[in-house]
């Protein structure tokens, strides 16, 4: 399946922080065909550093497919023979959508730290414009994992009538203090890079090492103690004995370094600052979700699917259960499963054999 | 109780990496009195960034006591009316013992990265010299938490006859790949600091921000998801509403920043590199502990106490149980408890009401 990145352009967006964004680009990709009634669409929302490249390849020779290719395509869990699938990038990002690396018309230079703060609600409001552009009044489903799950939940709160179902994987109704803390050290690693220059690095060397460290921290949180034992153990890298060196003795170190190095090829440090902050601000905790869902204009057929993963310590299962309880409190139909997996948070990207039947059954019911 | 830091000096030490250290200083503190038979001594070993200041104050006006003051003193779990308590700093450190910030006689400048790599075994071999200096042939107990527990385990392997008991808290027989990974990102944060200068920063500005970030990462691992909820929640710092700022919106961020800033007042960045590496190298995993304990010249009365803490995700309880199994395999007397606590890894420093009776009973039995 070949995919193509498209850019949706719209005039302006009022942000939660009080500022207004103008002349906005939003990257997206579409798969399958929108039917005449425009009632076969599914919106998929990506995680922190994801993008609109959900499935397939741009050209046949691409080495990598989109980030949820296991789940999206002809005859897959999200069947593109049947559904019209939209994956929207987030504003604040750096993969075709407006973000800190975009040109600020006032200065003719990239925004950098002059870019206004964005929130999950702002991301969702931008996506709503895209759905309007397609003329879609009712989605089959609004689906996301991790930060994508936060967006799906925000869709339910802000545009409740716009989807027949909401699927939230490996996510939470709020960012926990532990996760705020983990984001904070990542941000500091970027801002302590010699090249960061208060965010004005676009015309010179970039804060690659700092961004790479931030990614390494984050990557640890995507795995699990168990999966790291299994994947790396204490194996030393390409040699028989320890060398007594500060770096790259152990396979796990080389792997993380590789993850950091790959990441900086595709991500902008300022976008990382802004998007982590947006996640930190997400807060339907402490009973707020119960209230936020009250008396909303949901479709009478609406249903929710909440999925957590047993070894996910970034968004542990109890946080998914808190969402379930808030839905039940509001008499909303909800299915929940805690899927046994050793893959940690990344399980929502990897456990296709366990996940696909669940998703397929839920979406097609 | 007033305490005083002492320096023990000895000639040389053969290191595991193959190099030899000369003219070694080792900082220590002592509490209580060594009896005539020299058979009432307890050796306490500190964690990663601890030091010899175990208990009491240096002067009455000190704001802080030693790091295990809750447990060590007259009539406390480790009763200094009864026992002679020694706390030895580790080589490689920066609190009075020889380490990378010590003067290299060859260059008349601090060693920096010319300091040889050290291991947990090297630390223990240095401590053994201190025990010999006191003329102690048999300790009542050899006790440590976290990296201190690794040292206590190494004492059991390397000098088995030298203690009647070994107490290992919140520790492991090996450093897991997850923990190697967490150390690695801390080290990279230091080495990416503009002031790090390949470890030659002693005559100029120090890599404070990098070291502070490393400490912030580590500090997160000392707490637990639950204790962070309880301690900070999502409270915002000293204001009513979010300001939309990249730093210091949330209390947890300010707390971490404070921890980082405090740490750089007392710790040397190169020592942090060397000591984290020593921990990474610690490896009695994959059945190696079983073998290492076989046919050792333990006192016939020897006994072990292994304690883990339910919310410790840095050295999870299963890792303590692996130690227990290796001891049982060798028919060594072992008591084990998994103490229910929400304090995470730090529980071994904080849970004095739960821990003190256990320690007291075990030591005095």
Features:
homodimer, 365 residues, alpha/beta, Rossmann fold, Rna Polymerase Sigma Factor, Chain: A, 2 domains, eight-stranded mixed beta sheet, two-stranded parallel ribbon, 35% helix
In percent, how helical is the residue content of chain A?
25-40%
What portion of residues of chain A belong to β-strands? 15-25%
CATH class of the largest domain in chain A: Alpha Beta
Say how many strands of chain A there are.
12
CATH architecture of the largest domain in chain A: 3-Layer(aba) Sandwich
Structure classification of chain A: alpha/beta
Query: Largest beta sheet of chain A, briefly?
Result: 8 strands, mixed
Overview of this structure, please?
The structure is a homodimer of 365-residue chains. With 365 residues, chain A is α/β, with parallel strands linked by helices. Chain A has helices at 120-133, 147-158, 177-191, 208-222, 225-231, 251-266, 269-281, 288-292, 317-329, 347-350, 352-364; strands at residues 6-14, 20-31, 41-45, 72-73, 78-79, 84-88, 103-104, 109-110, 141-145, 165-169, 303-309, 333-339. Chain A has two domains: 6-175 and 284-364, 3-Layer(aba) Sandwich (Rossmann fold), CATH 3.40.50; 180-276, Rna Polymerase Sigma Factor, Chain: A, CATH 1.10.1740.110. The first copy, chain A, has an eight-stranded mixed beta sheet, with helices on both faces. In chain A, helix 1 packs across helix 2. The mean pLDDT of chain A is 97. At the A-B interface, helix 3, helix 4, helix 5, helix 6 and helix 7 of A face helix 3, helix 4, helix 5, helix 6 and helix 7 of B.
